[in-house]
Amino acid sequence: MFLTLNPESGVPLFTQLHDAIVSAIAHGELRDGDKLDPVRRVAADFGINPATVKKAYDKLVAEGLAETAGRSGTVVRPGARTDAQNQQLVEGLQRAALLARAQGFNDSEIRSHLDAILKDLP
Question: Where is the HTH gntR-type domain (predicted)?
Answer without folding.
Answer: 11-79
